[in-house]
Amino acid sequence: MSSTFYFPSLFFSPLRYRPHGVGNWSGHLPLACDLIASLRPSVLVELGTHFGESYFAFCQAIEETGTKCKAYAVDTWQGDIHTGAYGNEVFNEVASYNRCRYSQFSQLMRMPFDDAIENFEPESIDLLHIDGAHTYEAVRHDFDTWWSRVKPSGIVLLHDTFERDAGFGVWKLLEELSQIFPTVEFRHSHGLGVVLKSGAVAGHGVIPLLFNKDTVELESLRRFYEVCADHLEHQFWLARQRHPGDWDVTTQLFWRGAGENFTEAASVRSAHTLTPQRSRLALPVPRMAAPATELRLDLADCSAFFVMHAIYILDTKGEVLWQWLAMDGTDDLRSSGLNFVAATDEESVLVLDAPLGASFLLPGSESIMQALQSGGEVVVEMTGLSPKSFVSKLATAFEWRLTRQQAKSDEIQIALDHAQRLALERQEELKQFDRTLVEAQRLATEKQQG
Fold this sequence. Notes:
alpha+beta, Rossmann fold, seven-stranded mixed beta sheet, 37% helix, 24% strand
C-alpha cells in the first residue's frame, strides 16, 4: 500500500469545509480529490448539493489536477425531507461561491433532478454523485433514472449508506446493487457507496485499488481515508480554537395548526455561524392554506454560547407584526420556554442550556397568524461569545441581579457550572483531535518505512 501515500489527497486542503457547521460529507473530501485524479472525468454531475461541500471539493480537485471536465450541480435549493426546508440564502451563497471560483467549467442547474436529465446524453457522465432525498424509494428512483446517462466504466457515488434511521434507505439500495455491480463502501462520515458501471476499470491511482478484489488492501484504503478525515477535522478545530466566539448552529422555525404536532415538514431551517459580530438571521414563513395557531423557534441545535438581542415577526411587506426587544422586558419569552439571564446592558439576554433551553414558543395573536397566512418572515438578531466571555458576562449579570434581589445563590452556581462544563467539553474535544493527529502521523511513518 505504499502507493497510497502518493495520492493527491495527502496534499489536498479543501477550501470549503463544514460550511456553517454542515459537514455530513466532510470525511469523504480526500477521496473526492483522489477520484478526480484517478478517473479524470470529462463530465461530472451531482444530484443534491445544498451548501456545496462535496461539489466544490470536486471542483477544487478538477482545477488543481488540471482535469478538463464540465461539472454540473443539480438541486432545487429548497430542501427535502432530510435536510428540512430553507430559504433562497443558501442558493445565493452557493451561486456566488461558484461564480467567483469555478464558473469557467461549473454550472448550477436549479431544477428537479428529473427535469435536468434531458440535458445529458446517454452514457455521457463519467462521475455521478447522488445525494438527494435519502428514502429508499427516492434514491432508487434517482439511480434508475440516471443510470443510463453513466458511461461504461463510470462511477456512481451514493452518500449516507451507513445511516439506517429516520427513513434512510440508501443502505438497502447499495446492498441490492452489490449483487449486480462491483461496489465498495466507506463507512465513516455517514457512509459512501462507490458503484462501478460494467466495463474495464478506468484510470489509475485509487480506482483500480478499489476494485482489484484485494480485501486487505481495501481495508487499508478504508483506514487511510478515515485517518485523512480525522486529520481534516483536527485541523478545522485547531483553526476554530483561534476564534472561540464562533459557533456553528442551525436555527429552525416550526408552525402548526390547531390539533397538529410540530413536524419537520412544517418548518424552515438555516445553518449559520454565530460570531462576536451581531448578526441578523431571517427565516421565511411560506404561504399557508390555513392560518397557523402556534410558532416555535429553536435557536440552536447544539450547545453554544451566545446572546440574543431581538426577534421580529414581519409580513410580506416587511411590516412589523410583533417584536421583542430585551429592553422592553423578558416576561413573554420566559413564559414561552426560553431559559436565559438578562445581560447588564439591558439590551440583550444570555441564552442558557442551548439547545434545550433555546426552544420556545413565539407569542402570536390571532390577527398576527392571519397576516402570516400570506407569508412573511421571523428575524432573530444574535451574537456569539467565547466560553470565557460568556462565563464572565454571566457572573456579572448574576451579580447585577443580586443587587436588585432578583436571583438566588444556587441559581448562580448551576448556571456557572453548566457554562464551565461546556467549555471543558470543547477543550476535551480538541485534545482528542490532537491524539488523532499523532496517530495519523505514526501510521503514515510506519507505511513509508514499511
